[in-house]
């Protein structure tokens, strides 16, 4: 039914990720997404892959522009060889303020910039595998030198999936044309938004490049915020936690298109004004229960699989699902994972 990927908290440290990955593998997840926020995403991926034997590990998402495609290509090649083909590279642009002020890196036009990034990665991978002369000439990247000494050489599984996050219309169309898959943001995962906005844009991208867009050709990875747990008290607490997170996310104007689809665009401006005034603690109160029902699947472990199947079946073949905070709840969560996987 679905490939189910475990989510990883953005604060999880390198010291914790190995055990987290082992739990995900033991629980029957197909894969694991590792973040690139508080800690380095490539380091987390390496530790997760080294701790497991069957789990696919994907960065979700690696901030691309501060890193040279060559350094990312070398790391990805090593991770793919280490894991015998279990690594996926998920890329994202972040936002201008973070790229320029947090990373002190160049911010260009993000759509063509990320397009070149993915194209140059594939060119470098090909040079690694075939020893053909490295040559890539673009506006943002130029690669023309790879001495044999620095070439890691061919590996058994050279086809590393390149995924990308996308929100805006032009980015989504470009990802549909170039990437192996798209990773949704929590703000653009309501089924109506996927059906009416994301999929038509992806189809435009598929048409541009002559792709089929079927499940073997392109993966659409839906990562909703999910409120689940062993009992209703736990679910309700998770529901309020996600309310607070969505309040923070929707203070960013780039994420407002999904609010606009539902006629809630004024909520985004209210949240942005609150951040400027420093009213962080009350931002969650802007989001009504009606809004949360559209954005956050909700139910106990006995219920949540059916809720997610009803929402997402026919829209995607891959979804994310949270690992319980308490390992004592893993057995309950495993039943939901089995149902989502159709086993």
Helical content class:
40-55%
Q: State the CATH topology.
A: TIM Barrel
Q: Can you count the beta strands?
A: 13
Q: How many structural domains can be distinguished in the coordinates?
A: 1
Q: What is the mean pLDDT?
A: 96
Please give the largest β-sheet. Answer: 8 strands, parallel, barrel
CATH homologous superfamily annotation:
Luciferase-like domain
- Given the helix and strand composition, which structural class is it? alpha/beta
Do you know the CATH architecture? Alpha-Beta Barrel
Through-space gap between termini: 8 Å
Key traits:
343 residues; alpha/beta; TIM Barrel; eight-stranded parallel barrel; two-stranded antiparallel ribbon; 13 helices; 13 strands
Explain how this protein is built.
By secondary structure, this protein is α/β, with parallel strands linked by helices. The protein is 47% helix and 13% strand. It has one domain: Alpha-Beta Barrel (TIM Barrel). It has 13 helices and 13 strands. Strand 8, helix 6 (169-178) and strand 9 (181-183) form a beta-alpha-beta unit. Helix 3 crosses helix 5 (110-130) and helix 5 runs parallel beside helix 6 (169-178). It is globular and about 60 Å long.
């Amino acid at each position: 039914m679905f490939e189910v990927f475990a989510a990883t908290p953005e604060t999880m440290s390198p010291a914790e990720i190995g055990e987290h990955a082992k739990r995900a593998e033991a629980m029957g997840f197909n894969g694991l997404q590792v973040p690139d926020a508080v800690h380095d995403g490539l380091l987390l991926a390496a530790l997760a892959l080294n701790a497991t034997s069957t789990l696919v590990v994907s960065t979700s998402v690696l901030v691309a522009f501060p890193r040279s495609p060559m350094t990312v290509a070398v790391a990805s090649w090593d991770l793919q060889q280490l894991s015998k083909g279990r690594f996926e590279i998920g890329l994202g642009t972040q936002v201008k303020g973070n790229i320029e002020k947090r990373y002190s890196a160049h911010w260009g036009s993000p759509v063509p910039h990320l397009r070149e990034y993915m194209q140059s990665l594939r060119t470098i991978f090909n040079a690694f595998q075939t020893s053909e002369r490295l040559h890539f000439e673009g506006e943002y990247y130029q690669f023309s030198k790879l001495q044999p000494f620095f070439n890691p050489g061919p590996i058994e599984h050279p086809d590393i999936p390149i995924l990308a996050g996308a929100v805006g219309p032009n980015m989504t169309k470009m990802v549909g044309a170039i990437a192996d898959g798209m990773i949704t943001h929590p703000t653009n995962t309501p089924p109506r938004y996927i059906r009416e906005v994301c999929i038509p844009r992806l189809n435009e991208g598929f048409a541009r490049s002559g792709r089929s867009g079927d499940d073997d050709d392109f993966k659409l990875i839906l990562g909703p915020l999910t409120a689940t747990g062993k009992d209703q008290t736990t679910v309700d607490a998770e529901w309020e936690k996600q309310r607070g997170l969505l309040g923070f996310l929707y203070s960013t104007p780039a994420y407002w298109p999904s609010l606009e689809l539902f006629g809630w665009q004024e909520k985004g401006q209210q949240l942005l004004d609150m951040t400027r005034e420093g009213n962080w603690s009350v931002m969650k109160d802007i989001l009504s229960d009606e809004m949360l029902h559209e954005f956050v699947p909700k139910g106990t472990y006995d219920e949540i699989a059916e809720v997610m199947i009803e929402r997402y079946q026919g829209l995607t073949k891959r979804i994310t699902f949270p690992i319980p905070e308490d390992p004592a709840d893993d057995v309950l969560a495993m039943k939901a994972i089995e149902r989502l996987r159709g086993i």
